[in-house]
Amino acid sequence: MNKQMKLTPNQTAVLETLSKSDKPLSAYEILNFENIRDSGIKAPLTVYRALDKLIDKGRVHRIESLNAFVACDGKPHIEPAGFVICESCKNTLELRIRDCEDHLTKDALKKGFQVKGIRVEVAGTCSDCQKS
Question: 17 forms bridges with which residues in the sheet?
Answer without folding.
Answer: none
